[in-house]
Amino acid sequence: MNVYLDNAATTAVAPEVVEAMVPVLESCFGNPSSSHAAGRKSRVLIEQSRRSVAKHLNCHPSTIYFTSGGTEADNLALRGAVRDLGCTRIITSEAEHSAVIKTAQSLAQSNGVTLDLVRHLPNGQVDLEHLHALLQAEGKTIVSLMHANNEVAVIQDIARIGAMCQEAGALFHTDTVQTMCHYAFDLETLPVDFITCSAHKFHGPKGVGFLYIRKGIQVKGQIEGGSQERAVRGGTESTHNIVGLAKAMDLAYADLESHQSHVRALKARMVAGLKAAFQDIRFNGDSDHPDGLYTVLNVSFPPHPKSGMALFLLDLEGIACSGGSACSSGATLGSHVLRALEFHDPQRASLRFSFGRYTTEEEVDYALGAIQRVFA
Ligand code: PLP
Q1: pLDDT tens digit string along 44-54?
Q2: pTM over 0.70
Q3: Whether residues 259 and 203 fall in one domain
Q4: H helices then E strands: how many in the chain?
Q5: Which atom of ligand 1 approaches the CA of 146 most closely?
């Protein structure tokens, strides 16, 4: 049996999404910037998709800028804030996705930006007192702190952080790649300036996402070229991918509560099974907390001679899970997040299991059996 428990890395494309995309691939090939009928047909699809996304998030369609995904959107927010909005300081955290932390480091190296890293509490929550102190320093600042951590399921209070940023006159970017379409958002009331989305985390296609940029904020494109996406993102739009993103979002928000309870129940089943099978097991971050990101479970197994091989042995058993974020899973580097939050223990295998719409109870039970065989 093959069991896919790596939905935080990526998800299977929903059949309904494929169904929405195929006709676009087959018959909407016109360049959306062309003024002829074929081009206009593609343009209509893109603008319909933008309106649909904006409706789900309660924001104006003109605040949605389609990109190639989460990485590009994170780059666009941080680089735009420094290059076009005069930010000379970035406050972020070592536990951010590499799309944020590496971009911030590179801006600090090449653009002379001051980089401040906010401390964490023992469970991985941002230390808000430290953030408050950092926000008192001089200099136009952008704060970039993710909504939910993709590895250890910690959810930050972005409403509170956004309010603190507003009070201090700082811009606020939050990477919502792991929470978009898994939680509801109301951008009319949420005090954020930028949020990032990636479609492949909610059963949409890979290679498409967007950056929400609050009305009134003007950044220039980081990709020079045409003036697509109102000159914020040069390059011919990927019409079929954008249609796929909007369809995946429609599906997610049509069914949010039942999705949440389905996935929460699967995770609870896995936690109960692991607790019954292993005495000295640790659930990292907010993995086993009711307020944690319900799709992600990060576990440190008891010390075992096969710890270093666990990911490989589980793969042989047909179980797809991860040892870190997708970019580093399978590599020997381990996870920068576990190290930053001090959950890393070289004696223990730390594995991330993440659940999705198509995960079943039977699969969870099979995975529990396979895990016990590996750590027997
Ligand atoms: N941010 C977070 C929190 C992620 O989990 C990911 C994907 O792993 C990304 C950004 C990057 O998104 P994309 O794969 O669309 O570039």
Answers
A1: 999 999 999 99
A2: yes
A3: no
A4: 12, 12
A5: 3
